[in-house]
Each structure stands twice: as C-alpha cells, then as structure tokens.
Amino acid sequence: QVQLVESGGGLVQPGGSLRLACTASGFTLDYHAIGWFRQAPGKEREGVSCISSAGKSTYLSDSVKGRFTISRDNAKNTVYLQMNSLKPEDTAVYYCATGAPCYADYVGFTYWGQGTQVTVSS
Questions:
Q1: Is the pLDDT of residue 58 over 90?
Q2: In whole numbers, what is the pLDDT of the chain averaged over residues?
Q3: Which residues touch 57 (CB under 8 Å, ≥6 apart)?
Q4: CB under 8 Å to 24, separation ≥6 — which residues?
C-alpha cells in the first residue's frame, strides 16, 4: 500500500525554523519526484517545493526561495523540507505528494499525505 506521512509541523515564532519530513511506505522514494504543497484556509493549494526522482533538480516557489531547502535521504525513504526564517504568511497545512513530475499542477499528483500544520505567529 502506498502511503506518505508528514511530520515536523508545529507553532513557531517569526524568524524560527522547522524541518518537515515526508516518509514513504509501499514504494521507494528515489524512483519518484516528491512535491511539497501548502494550503491555508480559504486559499488555493500552492506548490512550495519539489525534488526530482534522480535528485538532480530541486524547485522552490518564489515566496520561499532562499529560506527553504528540499532534500532526500533514500536510506530512510524520506524527503525533508527545511524551513528557515519563517514568516506568518507561511502558516498553512503542508502536504507532500508524489505520482507526477515536478512541473505538474497539484491535481496531477496521485498520492498525498494527510498534512501537517505549520503556524508562524508571535
């Protein structure tokens, strides 16, 4: 059974850091692109970052570029999203997903985790 589980969310102050993890079961992550998305209440789901199946290319949205980093640890079947210099506008539920290449819109991704809440507030 294909399953993705996110972890690492929480409440942080502006300027703080969190590291989100996306751990896969039922398949091997190194054969798949993994995307991170986020959604705030009443807002459209937004692509945040993506790492290619080969790990040769990474993508970051303009809003997080320079603050977030995506990486994979194939031995742990896990993809990480390191989030630094967090801002209140980063507050959202963060999801990882797979099943599509990194250029795809979120509707193209087949498998999704349940999400983890990130709240940035003073």
A1: yes
A2: 94
A3: 51, 102
A4: 2, 3, 4, 77, 78, 79, 98
Pairing of strands 111-112, 116-120: unpaired
One-letter identity of residue 113: G
46 contact partners, CB below 8 Å, separation of at least 6: 37, 38, 39, 61, 92
**Overall residue count recorded for the chain in this entry:** 122
Distance CA 46, CA 92 (A): 10
How far apart are the two ends of the chain, measured CA to CA in Å?
40
Antiparallel, parallel or unpaired: β 116-120 and 92-98? antiparallel
3-state secondary structure of 102: coil
Kindly report, residue by residue over 90-102, the tens digit of the pLDDT: 999 999 999 999 9
C-alpha to C-alpha distances, 80 to 6, 44, 70, 90, 121, nearest whole angstrom? 9, 23, 6, 17, 22
